[in-house]
Amino acid sequence: MKNYPPQFKADAVALYRSRPGATIRQIAADLGINPETLRNWIRSAGASRPRGHQADAPAGSAAPLEEENAALRKKIRELEEEREILRKAAKYFAGETRW
User: Which fold would CATH assign to domain 1-52?
Assistant: First the structure.
């Protein structure tokens, strides 16, 4: 069992509070610690997230997540199109340089 310094624990809890969109699992992975360890630190610190956080919202209010997903899907399509254009250009110029 690892012992973490109190400052590290406090910083981890502060990070949890400052990133409303992130889950305990994500933050724990970023810090390289077990999610249950972080969950225990949060509980012992009595820390909670500010009101209006997504995890505090009712289950039926998925609209912000749906909007974000739609925006991300659009970005993926744009990047795929750009990649395809670059592939075609690379293929064209590779063929042009051969004699």
Answer: Arc Repressor Mutant, subunit A (1.10.10)
